[in-house]
């Protein structure tokens, strides 16, 4: 099929590459010339393992092209995917200005039937808004061009985006017309058994509900970890025991320093903003965000308690990205940790395999090491912030000799506590008191 993807961010680019790889003809459109030029040169504007190779292949096959002009490319596509960003406004409400702008452009330039698919994460009711915008533009042009609307939320995880794109658990298609549904069925024919058809509004809510529920699991386990610490219970064992119940499941029960990224913090806030607007409070979700906002503070208080005064202490951060296998630092807990340490006049050195350039732009004055070994030299304490494999698999016996004090605070419960203690470390994780 011929597809235009409008918005070459993380979701748009991944979706475009996945469709092109399946043999569809895709044009990826973005007003950001720099981004489009980067993509044209077969380079990804972000890090995602294996994706640049696929980008190259799709371009070479002639299935994937790029443009800065929706107007010039709109005629060649049957399906128009909207994948622009919906960042949070200061009050948590999703900023729909980019989505609305694209809808206006579509209304101004379509000449024949199109299926308009919203993949951006948008609040319930946005589908109706988009329809209204397109219809208004068509009325201004005195035209009555038919179009179908679809909400097709994205469930990709950064760092595993290609796998998720090729092996979706489910494909949610919110659509109120038969023709629109048939077009989407044709598009996803390889995975047609995984399609769940719903109304547009239901699909919009499924996206927010899914992310909010996953965030709930994380905050639940993080808050419980605080209690486990006070009661001599090991949260890792608790999570394992809970996760064996199939109704609960083992995933997203990894206690840590909180969730970050471009999705959970933004989407929970947006759902809360909708709840406020509708005067229907979501008490659980309110608590979820509160736990997440205080989790780093709770962790750092532990660090401070163990080390005493942090002023002039040399603290090393291993990992800066919001999770491993990405260069994304948006809403990463590392940023809150840096703020805390700066406020307490600590001397910070940091290492991350992919995220340092981005953090450097926000905190140019802290020291960045080019290897983990360089980062840990003479440190008074080491904070494991992101569980990169290369960090977990360091030679911890050797690291101990390089530190000035053998203090390790594991913000992801990624290391083996008893092995660390045996090596002679003062080790603290998240709610993982040794079981007795
Ligand atoms: C999340 C969802 O998992 C995707 O399904 C969704 O498509 C995406 O948001 C989106 O809306 O675009 P992502 O933000 O890439 O994906 O990252 P996750 O793997 O969900 O992790 C989010 C955060 O939770 C990370 O900071 C991670 O460290 C943290 N986390 C995750 C925990 O602290 N504990 C866990 O057990 C799991």
What is the fold's blueprint, element by element?
Blueprint: E1 2-6, H1 10-21, E2 25-29, H2 33-40, H3 51-61, E3 64-67, H4 70-73, E4 79-82, H5 97-109, E5 114-118, H6 126-140, E6 147-151, H7 161-166, E7 171-175, H8 178-187, E8 195-198, H9 200-231, H10 235-243, H11 264-277, H12 283-307, E9 314-318, H13 333-343, E10 347-351, H14 356-362, E11 367-368, H15 372-376, E12 381-384, H16 389-392, H17 396-402, E13 407-410, H18 417-422, E14 426-428
Parallel strand pairs: 1-2, 1-4, 2-3, 4-5, 5-6, 7-8, 9-10, 9-12, 10-11, 12-13, 13-14
Antiparallel strand pairs: 6-7
The protein binds uridine-5'-diphosphate-glucuronic acid.
Uridine-5'-diphosphate-glucuronic acid binds near residues 256, 260 and 322.
List keywords for this structure.
436 residues, alpha/beta, 8-stranded mixed β-sheet, 18 helices, 14% strand, binds uridine-5'-diphosphate-glucuronic acid
Kindly describe this structure:
The chain is α/β, with parallel strands linked by helices and 436 residues long. It has 18 helices and 14 strands. Strands 3-2-1-4-5-6-7-8 form an 8-stranded mixed beta sheet, sandwiched between helices. Strand 1, helix 1 (10-21) and strand 2 form a beta-alpha-beta unit. The longest helix is centred in the middle third of the chain and has 32 residues, at 200-231. The protein binds uridine-5'-diphosphate-glucuronic acid. Uridine-5'-diphosphate-glucuronic acid is lined by residues 121, 154-158, 211, 214, 218, 252-254, 256, 259-261, 263-264, 322-323. Residues 121, 154-158, 211, 214, 218, 252-254, 256, 259-261, 263-264, 322-323 line the site of uridine-5'-diphosphate-glucuronic acid.
């Amino acid at each position: 099929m011929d597809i235009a993807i409008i918005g070459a961010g993380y979701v748009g680019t991944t979706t475009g590459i996945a469709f092109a790889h399946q043999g569809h003809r895709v044009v990826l459109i973005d007003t950001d010339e720099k981004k489009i030029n980067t993509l044209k040169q077969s380079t990804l504007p972000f890090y995602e393992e294996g994706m640049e190779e696929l980008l190259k292949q799709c371009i070479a096959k002639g299935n994937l092209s790029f443009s800065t002009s929706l107007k010039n490319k709109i005629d060649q596509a049957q399906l128009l995917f909207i994948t622009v960003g919906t960042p949070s406004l200061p009050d948590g409400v999703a900023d729909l200005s980019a989505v609305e702008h694209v809808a206006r452009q579509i209304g101004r330039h379509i000449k024949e039937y199109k299926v308009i698919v919203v993949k951006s994460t948008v609040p319930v009711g946005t589908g109706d808004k988009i329809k209204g915008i397109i219809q208004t533009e068509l009325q201004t042009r005195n035209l009555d061009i038919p179009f179908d609307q679809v909400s097709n939320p994205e469930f990709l995880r950064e760092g595993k985006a290609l796998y998720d794109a090729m092996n979706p658990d489910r494909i949610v298609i919110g659509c109120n017309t038969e023709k629109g549904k048939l077009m989407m069925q044709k598009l996803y024919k390889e995975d047609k058994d995984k399609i769940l058809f719903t109304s547009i509004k239901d699909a919009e809510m499924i996206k927010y509900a899914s992310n909010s529920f996953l965030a709930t699991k994380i905050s639940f386990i993080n808050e419980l970890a605080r209690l486990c610490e006070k009661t001599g219970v090991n949260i890792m064992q608790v999570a394992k025991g809970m996760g064996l119940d199939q109704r609960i499941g083992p995933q997203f029960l990894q206690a840590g320093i909180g969730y970050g990224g471009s999705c959970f913090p933004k989407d929970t806030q947006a759902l809360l903003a909708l709840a406020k607007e509708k005067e229907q409070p979501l008490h659980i979700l309110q608590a979820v965000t509160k736990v997440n906002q205080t989790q780093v503070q709770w962790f750092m208080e532990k660090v401070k308690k163990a080390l005493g005064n942090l002023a002039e202490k040399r603290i090393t951060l291993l990992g800066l990205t919001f999770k491993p296998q990405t260069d994304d630092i948006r809403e990463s807990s590392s940023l809150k940790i840096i703020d805390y340490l700066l406020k307490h006049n600590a001397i910070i050195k940091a290492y991350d395999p992919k995220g340092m350039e981005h953090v450097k732009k926000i905190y140019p004055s802290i020291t960045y090491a080019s290897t983990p070994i360089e980062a840990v030299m003479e440190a008074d304490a080491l904070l494991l912030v992101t569980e990169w494999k290369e960090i977990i698999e360091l030679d911890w016996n050797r690291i101990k000799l390089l530190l000035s004090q053998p203090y390790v605070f594991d913000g992801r419960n990624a290391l083996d506590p008893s092995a660390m203690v045996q090596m002679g470390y003062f080790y603290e994780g998240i709610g993982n008191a040794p079981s007795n």
